[in-house]
Amino acid sequence: MAGYRAEDDYDYLFKVVLIGDSGVGKSNLLSRFTRNEFSLESKSTIGVEFATRSLTVDGKVIKAQIWDTAGQERYRAITSAYYRGAVGALLVYDVTRHSTFESVERWLKELRDHTDPNIVVMLIGNKSDLRHLVAVSTEDGTSFSETESLYFMETSALDATNVDSAFTEVLTQIDRIVSKKTIDAGDAPSVPSKGENIDVSKDVSAMKKGGCCSS
Question: Mind telling me which Gene3D superfamilies this protein's record contains (predicted)?
Fold first, then answer.
């Protein structure tokens, strides 16, 4: 572990993608979660964009690498490279625009065509602060997510409602799946970790905290 820089001091790196129609607030969800910022300018994202944030889940440091679609969705041309290696996804619609909810099924199919079957997917009804303009009911979101076995939350990137909770829940569920896979498969190369299995990670965590094994 010598030579680690502080910002690289993590147990797992998880790639999470944001998908959904243009204008639903994906970029602001990203900036709210990773930088606690929000922009009222609704210009579409151009170019590849991702940001990272590290947080502790069940005693492990998880570095989340969150990818934004970079405006590709306007041309329905999300590349397979965007999805490659993703272990989590936030599928976002705008609660004030029913057409964006109607697109969710297509986005989910595309996601499942390009990713591992075990990917953790959270359906997000964004812009929940605009209650007076709601066009998609909470019940509709809940019903779709239950039918498709997705997690579901309504969020507001504007006032930060449920943004941290949504990302944290996705990362927690990914961690549980990865931990179970690691336990089942030993140190199988398919496990997206730093190459150590869960037992080694625990040992490393114990050493980082400076504690001797006094359990």
Answer: P-loop containing nucleotide triphosphate hydrolases
